[in-house]
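Comment thread on ticket #2218

A.B. wrote:
> Attaching the input chain for the structure job we discussed in standup.
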Amino acid sequence: MPPEIIFDQGLGDLFIIRVAGNILSDEILGSIEYAVEHLHVPLIMVLGHDKCGAVSAAVEGGETRNHIQALVEALRPAVAAAKTQGGNVISNAIDANVQRAVAALRESEPVLSPACAAGHVQIIGARYNLDTGEVKIIA
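C.D. wrote:
> Ran it. Output below, let me know if you need it in another format.
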């Protein structure tokens, strides 16, 4: 579901970066830093969603012979954390992954951490329910 529809915004009203599994890379961080420094974006939301295929692949484990393996590897810490909790491992891993991404963004130097501390940007995590359309803040 496009974020513009979820949040009732027009095309171009949101600066959207989409990547399977909400994985952070230098390119993703550079894009976010650009949004904060040059576009003065006041809010960054890491939005996970139910039934995430990337997280499901990481929970299932195994090896792939393609670039999906990079996603699986990046998601392993969230999966490991989820396996220590009760309940549905995939659901817990989705939330853990969002929380890990939010924490990493809040600590990211040299742009995001100081911008957060100065109150120029807020970084939050949320989860989108595909069935109900509800967005729940989780971090």
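A.B. wrote:
> Thanks. Noting for the ticket: Residues 15-137 form a domain with the Beta-carbonic Anhydrase; Chain A fold (CATH 3.40.1050.10).
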